[in-house]
Amino acid sequence: MAPSLFDFRTLTESVNKIISPKTVIGDNVYGSRKQVFASHIEVDIVEGKRKIAPMTNPNREAPIAGNLTAKKEIYSFPNVKQKKVFDFKDITSVPAGMDLYTGSQDSLNSAMKQKIAVELADLKSNLVRRHEYLCCQSLSGKIDYKIDNQSYTLDFGMPASHKITLTGADKWSETTTKTMDNIKAWIRLISKDAGKKAGIAYMGSDVADVFMKDEKILKLLDNSKVSIGQIGFEMREQEGTIYHGNLFGVDLYEYSEEFTDEDNSTKQFIPKNAFILMPKKTRSIFYSGLIQDASLNQVVAMPFFAKEFVQQDPGTRYLLVDSSPLPVPHAPEEFVYSIVL
């Protein structure tokens, strides 16, 4: 016997097949995805400086290379879930111009499937936006969140030298600022500490406004990719991003997309006053942990879990989508997270 439309297995399979909305940091920095079969994870935080092999005598054994410096950290997976009322009135109501008695059981089932798909897609989109915000937070070296007024922090051990706050005359909004010197210094910092070349930067909307008014920068800025169409199609399609050109080999993007938090306040995924520098390819992985549901006595190893349930008195049917996301920057020295305004 085939499971019903509201069986958790059917709903879970469906929600995982629904195409996720495109994200900027989640898709481009955390394109590597892994499923973990546990509710916590032990990860290596790596220091990746470039080492050079020694000169050797061809008649002697090769010297042993030291292992990458790494420290192990254990993190528990955060939980992100949301539910909504599934109202049968939306299905059984008669659209304008239709006869009350037309239709069939098949058409009702078809309408039910369509309604389920629409509601699952909406819930999944909400969860994916939260995942994107977690990814954006992780670029600062930590993730802060609250549950029932209790604060939690996931700290990835980013060196203090990679978390920068400019003050006073050094702010990019001041005439005394040395914006280009800052960027060159941060490029060298990533090269020295992570052994990689910085190639992309995301800036908040206020930073972009100030940045694009700097005459010295505009003279050096290479925006030829805009005119000859060399920017990756995927990046052009990201909501909330604007390409501003290339400086010192770094592609510069403004990321100003907003979301509405649970307290109904509007925020940007990247702070308006932030400038975040990184290589184009990083050792960052987006993990999904086990999702446990006590009421069904089920444990699911998939990025998303979905179910329906009925609350009695008054009788209300809900659809719920659940997830256990954890974006981990395995090499935090690959990033420079700077507050420049």
Describe the structure.
- There is one protein chain.
- By secondary structure, the protein is α+β, with helices and mostly antiparallel strands.
- The protein has a single domain (8-51, 69-339), classed as capsid protein of prophage fold (2-Layer Sandwich).
- Helix content is 27%, strand content 30%.
- The chain contains 9 helices and 20 strands.
- The chain has helices at residues 8-17, 25-28, 89-92, 105-138, 179-194, 205-211, 215-220, 224-228, 233-237, and strands at residues 32-35, 40-47, 69-76, 80-85, 142-147, 150-155, 163-165, 200-203, 241-247, 250-255, 258-260, 266-268, 274-278, 284-288, 291-293, 298-300, 305-311, 316-323, 325-329, 336-339.
- The strands form 7 sheets. The protein has a 6-stranded mixed sheet. Strands 1-14-19 form a 3-stranded mixed sheet.
- The longest helix has 34 residues, at 105-138.
